[in-house]
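Session log. Operator J.P. requested a structure for one protein chain; no other inputs attached. Running the standard single-chain path with token output.
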Amino acid sequence: MEDLNIQPPRGANRLLAFFCKTEYLEDIQGDLEEEYILKHQKGPLKALLWYYWQVIRLFRPGLTKSSKINHLIPTNGSMFRNHLIVAIRNLWKYKSGTAINIIGLSTGICAFILIALFIQDELSYDQHHVHADNTYRLTVKNIDKNGELSRHWAFASAGHAQRLKADYPEITHATRFYAWAFPDIQIGDKVFPSEQVVFADKDVFEVFTFPFILGNAESAFREIKSIVLTEQSAIRLFGNDWRNDDILGKTIQITRDATKASFVVSGVMEDMPENQHFHFEYLAPIEFLEPVFGEGMNNVTGNYNWLTYLRLQEGTDPRRIEQYKDDFFDKYVGLFENGIPAKKAYDFELQPLLSIHLNSHLEGEIESNGSLQQVYIFGTVGILLLVVACINYMNLATSHFSRRTKEVGVRKAIGAHKSSLIQQFLTESLMVNLLSFPVAIMLTWLALPYLNDFMEKQLTFNMLENRELLLGLILLLVMVAIISGSYPALFLSRINLIQALKGEAAINSNKWNFRSWLITFQYAVTIGLLFTLAVIEGQMKFIQNSDPGYRKDQILHLSMSRNIRNLDVFKNELLSHPAIHKATYASRVPTGRLADNWNSAFFNDQTAVETTFRLPFILADEDFLETFEIELVAGKNFTAAMEMSTDSVGYYLVNRAAAKALGFDDPEDIVGRKLSYGNYDDHTYKAGRILGVTEDFHFESLHSEITPMVILKGDWNMRTICMQISPGDVQSALAHVEETWTKFDPINSPEYQFMDDLFDQQYQAEERLSTMIKVFTVIAVLIGCLGLIGMVGFIIDTRYKEIGIRKVLGASVFSIISMIGQRFLILIGIGCLVALPTSYFFISGWLDGFVYHINIGLLLVILPAVATLVLTLATISYQTLKASLINPVECLKDE
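Structure written below.
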């Protein structure tokens, strides 16, 4: 039934019906529709693009209607040569107009190509895996007591995948990934600190496509202590000549905390491609972890650290697996100790592998994913810029061709057919496009390295190696030539013979016509981009100027090493430098993500009430609030509890949001109340008391609301240490940090950043979007100004004598500028009416991605219109002023 509602795009079908021969049309449409329905199930956007691409590919002589298409193609060689000679002469004769057209078209085409390369890369993520269409990531949801979604993890539990695979035959293969973070890899006396070693099931090579350089997938995990390297890690460990050293069978030692083990190299894979949503350099069998986790390897709840993927049978609907949820949790968990059924607290979902990069932003994503919204924005902007460039050419070409009315009249008088005139003007359009495309390609080559650096991509533009790219560029050339040249050619070919022979202008510059609508569209695009840019810039300034509730300047963030055992001694050594005033260690710090929450129970009037809202936590020492200058609004800091016994009683700090969520508007009233905090799954709690309440601060970005949170006093799992540094002595302080680090950990190098840089990284995607919109806006304005220069020049030429007469009659320069400019003011007004509501609708959706954002005020609405008006008047005034200062005698001497 769902297939009946899936219809191919009407525009593509209309185009196909326009040029395709009737005897072939029905069969072709039927075949295309069947394939479209199949592709639509895997992604509507890709299916849409595929359908249009197939229709364009069918545009070839054997399928086209001769009556509508073939008469536009010159069949006589001498005729085509004549068209070409005339086209070259006219392009050379009007050099300034030709230059403006080439600059406008090449700039627009370059922007379109760059955006197309970016979008193609974003859409290609994980496509290289052979079984990508049938592969899904298993994600787990936590449901609160009210039946609402509380958490949604990108991970699953250790036993989830294998139990699902064993119970349901629709799952043919399943693999888990588990990462050991920051291990040391040793070969002989050499130690190589690494980011991670990943463990996986043997099915990993059946689910994903990892090409081998040495070894093969069948033998890679034959031994429990085997390890597979990537090419990059092989070079790091064994040097550039690793291929000649026969490294298979060599032993490497991996150390992480107290665990030390020797692994044998069993294979070398190609490096992970950039367009993949996860990356690693070392891969080992997951069986090695079984003695470490024991029975925990079979759990289907808790310990959500296992990235899990399932490969389903061909044609299996993933929703069918999701429907087994209740039976699954009943079988393997049943009831928790508090009597709550597991199926009421948990759910799972299968995410298509191909949708993860652009559509998934769950808790625990291993790498930053892209944004489908951003792809739509860039795609829309790219198409608009190309259309604006084509419109710009259409307007200028029509203005230029209209000066050749006598030529058209003479051609018609001696018997030239309408199709011959169309061929002539289309040839000239094709010539301009042929000149524009090499310029556009050169600009693309020059701009691509900067785009790669800015977007952190590895986009390539090699037409000789990529046939699809070459074909796409050829089709783009043909499409742009037809779109940009069709209107001028058709317009001029319809000129009245008598009017043409008299040399009268083909276009009345005072008359409202199709060209006026084209100019209005250009203004609408420019105003829309300016408005979008103004809102994005306003939001970014709001972010930069907002008070996050903690100090972020002159705070150095240092990632801790597992080799540093005595945190207090290390901290005191750092504080011995006079430029380092305060320091604190913590499990997480602001600008990061809050930790998974345990269950909590709040005791009100001695009655324990389990909380139903998210209450995440961080671990910190007693100097956390003071170092980050976070305000304590009620109660005391941890320093007041340091002399108290903490064997059986825990002490907690909560933020104001947590106090309100627990029912206390006045934070003083919650101080001293009992709060139990414990394990999420077995519902065992450690009794404690709320020692103090902090003011709310933005631990996470402004995308999310300030959440209730708990700060626990602890000295375990400390990942960072942060220091306040004097502004005038930063270099000396950094040197002291590096020297101190070397004393405590001579193997690893210190990794540090300033907190204000970490703060900015939270909004890196928005900064990139802002910069790209700036570039696109400049391009749109450049193209628009070039077109405006040509248009105003044409209007002045057609009204040259009128300007002379007005000057003789005493008209001022200002009145002449007003006469020329008033029409453009009307077009700007209409452009505003079209662009502002449309842009407001789309940019409001972008702002909704921030919980805290600006309000779009009247100034942001007026600013783009005023900017467009100023640019237009400046361009008009400059050219009109030159015409107004000419001696009227020069204007009227031919009369």
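Operator note: Confidence is low (pLDDT under 50) at residues 67-72, 680-684.
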